[in-house]
Amino acid sequence: MSATASGEVLRLTGALDFETLPAVIAEAEKYVGQADLPQRLTIDFSGVTGVDSSAVALLLDWRRRAIERRIALEFEHLPENLLALAQLYGVADLIRSGANGDAA
């Protein structure tokens, strides 16, 4: 798994699972640690090749952090299996909806 930031889009590639999660979190932390972090961020999942339940937890954490920092966050090209897991856990609406930094 790798994460590449380009402007307001963070592109993820490879598997997003329990094994790769620490590296993804570290890369994302570097990105959000920027002094000039944009007020709107899109995370692109088009390059993600596989997911497990840890991906759902990661997206929920990113959503929470975006709200805390008042950053609009959108997820693009979510894999169907990730959406299926989110539906199973009852959090699909939280993942699908765009986060508004003004939300509580």
Overall 3D shape: globular
How many β strands by DSSP? 4
CATH class division: Alpha Beta
Gap between N and C termini, in Å?
31 Å
Tally of separate helices: 4
Largest sheet: 4 strands, mixed
Give me the secondary-structure category: alpha/beta
Overall CATH architecture: 2-Layer Sandwich
CA radius of gyration: 13 Å
Describe the protein in words:
This protein is of the alpha/beta class and 104 residues long. It has one domain (2-96): Transcription Regulator spoIIAA. The protein contains four helices and four strands, in the order ββαβαβαα. A four-stranded mixed beta sheet has the order 1-2-3-4, with helices on one face. The termini are far apart.
Can you give keywords for this protein?
alpha/beta, 104 residues, Transcription Regulator spoIIAA, 42% helix, globular
SSE order and pairing:
Layout: E1 2-6, E2 9-16, H1 21-32, E3 40-51, H2 53-69, E4 72-76, H3 80-89, H4 92-96
